[in-house]
């Protein structure tokens, strides 16, 4: 399948991309390492099942989105998976109950990561989180040390975007944003530019200004796709979502969201065809195709996929039924 065909095929739908297989052997190698690391941390006894689940979720995403030629670089894969699991753990804790988190918590977390200092939280939960973050980030830096030495600029960009992401954890601004405002916010809150720069780190790729714009579009596609799959859950939890920035009822907004993501795919496809840069194409397709197939293979997105499919089939009655069904997702943190 040539580049144009691959991008054209990438539309929101219920079918995995042809020819792509889950990297099961790599997942089976890396996932136990991530799980084993967390089992020895301070936060593990608080939510062991959820943390085990997040370890697997992150490992699978790492393995799906890395170009296959990088699968033999075990330390890089493990470092990437550990970083992803850490982001999802942080995100889950701050999302669990926004009333028990504060800007001070986010600031202390930033201090823990950027300086790797011992920081005490305002609760046993956050003290455990900070200790776990410090240990995990230290191990992550050790695993990617060789790549940082070869491509320090890429790591600098990972850290810049990571710090920006952390600043969104306790964002107290109005959740109702127009589409442009939401795009700016989601580009940061999704942490997908960190994923882009990890792949640049591992492939020794430097991005031109034009490529940076391309990857911002790639990042938004993945984040918006996640929004569509998670709309029902975000609505119930009060989490900002793309559909909040669109007009109309839920049915109309979902259709508009699908159309928006399809337009972004078309833009990315055109840019890639015109650019002709093999490294850039490899990274963009690894992220788009990997994220797409990963989400279609993860049980946590199965209900959202049914909702999305109902919209595409034009079955509004089924859509409404699925939207009203309450869902508890595997791996949701239970900190009561």
From TrEMBL:
Gene3D superfamilies reported for this sequence: Farnesyl Diphosphate Synthase
InterPro entries in the cross-refs: Isoprenoid_synthase_dom_sf
SUPFAM superfamilies, per database record: Terpenoid synthases (SSF48576)
Pfam families per the UniProt record, alphabetical: Terpene_syn_C_2
UniProt-recorded name of the protein: Terpene synthase
The organism of origin for this protein: viral metagenome
